[in-house]
Structure formats: structure tokens, C-alpha cells
Here is the input.
Amino acid sequence: MASDRVCVAQIGAPHGVRGEVRFWIFTEDPMAVTRYGPLETEDGSQRFEIETLRPGKRFFVARLRGIADRAAAERLNNVGLYVPREKLPPPEDEETFYHADLIGLTAVNRQGETIGTVLAVQNFGAGDLLEIQPAGGGASVMLPFTKAAVPNIDVAAGRVVIDPPEGTFED
Here is the structure.
């Protein structure tokens, strides 16, 4: 189930007029993104090298090689940047996961019945949430990514065991 590429950053809006961009980093150590080599777009059609990276107020500010003005920076807004999985360190322990490993896993209840599929891992500031698409269709459901709500993750078996509050997946 593991993806061969992992999203490690996203380019945001331009920062100033000299080609710098706001930069959101999805790695535990933000500065590690500078050590992975060129970062690629999701489709692999473009590669970017980070020339400089510095903290901003709520984001990082990056200068990317070849991006010299605001117009060029504007064209990159919201571009996700990926690296090959082999460039990343392995998870530290069995309680640590790359989001890419969780997306696509089957969500089952404690009895083993399929509830849905993990669509995404979201974080709106208060901790990670698993976004689950119910097996029967309908709107996705957010569950806190805690031991109580997600007591077991088995990436090798392609599933997560979830224990949602009663009524969460009812119409």
C-alpha cells in the first residue's frame, strides 16, 4: 500500500517581489527538506531545488532555483512537492507513520466489518484527523487520529481498526 513518493512540502503564495514563496513543510524536522535533493511536482514534470529556507511567522520562506520574480512564484501557488520514499528515514517506531502509508487503507470496526477507506490525513491545528469515506457512500467523516479512535494500524495488512463514537457512520 505504501506510495513510492511522499509529499514533503507545498508551495504557497509569493513572498515579496524577488521570487521567494511561502512554503509549508510536512516533515518532522522542517530543515530536513533541504537535504532530500530536488523536489518534484506530483506528476514529476517539474523539479525544484531549495536555494534558501528560513522561518516566517506562520510558514517558511523559500527561494527556489530558477524562480527569480513574483510572476514566476505566483505560477507555483499550491504546488505539492514530493521526494522518492527511499530518501526518507524509516519511521522511528511502530507508532509513527507517513501519511502516505495511511491513505487508501481499509477502515474496519473492532468486529472486522468494513466501515470505509482512509481518504486523507488532515490537520486543522488541533491534531491529526483521519478522513474516512464510508463504504456505503455519502459524505466523508473525520475521526481524531488517537489511540482511542484508531486503536490499531496494520499497514502491511492494508487496514486500520477504528472505534468511532456511536452513530458516526449512520445516515
About this structure: The longest helix spans residues 70-74. Residues 5-87 form a domain with the Elongation Factor Tu (Ef-tu); domain 3 fold (CATH 2.40.30.60).
